[in-house]
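quick one before i forget lol
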Amino acid sequence: MQKITKLVLPVAGLGKRLLPLTKNLPKALVAASGKPLLEYVLEEAVSAGIKEVVLVINPRHAEHFKTYLKKGRKRFPELTFHVRVQDTPGGNGHAVVQAFDIIGNKPFAVRFCDDIVAGDPPALQSLIKIFDERRGSVVLLERVPKKLIPRFGVVAIKGGAEAKKIDGGNVYQIMDIIEKPKAKDAPSNLTIVGGYVLSGDVIKNLKRIANTLSTVLANDALPIAVALQIELIIGGKIYGWEFPGTRLDCGTLEKLRQAEAFLNKKRK
């Protein structure tokens, strides 16, 4: 059994919804309750047994991350850091492809720093446990109100919740993924949020697509969901874990303030 020890962190976004905080700072290094958003995910990674982290950055943020990692490598001695650059805003799947030389054809994890997932055990630890048990890619799921469905990728599931729960959350087999459907057309209100454990086939398929579309990749053209849909089409199995904790969306100024209030209260 291949152990999941590598994590890709796509942190190349410009964080326009967090202006003015991101005018001179990458979104991942914006602080919430006294520490950068990035560090919440790195703490989660350490607890899940991750050994290598690939930061996929925007080239204009290179100096910011170089400066941060001087401190970060001391703060997280368990982790080996790699930095790769995403020159074109081709989507989160395109960002993952930039880490191919580190990941190769082996299973790996992906997390997004603007989603802090407060739970015990940490989300990555549970996703890895499910991958090890089911031997198929796993995504993090959250139920959302009907009015929010058009903002997310929504999943169709097989026959409802399985009898067995893992770490307090229902495990589902995913039958389809629909990007940002109208609420009336959505197969469920289960949406994909910022966490994945993916098979090596997923990154191979993303790389093939990226190579094919190399001249037209822009504006989020290649999301991770495309490779997951290919997996489903060819008969692969993908699972989702509806986590029992709290997701703190830090993608806007208002949501960041709400997350800080939650974290400060939890700390006290």
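fyi The chain has one domain: 6-267.
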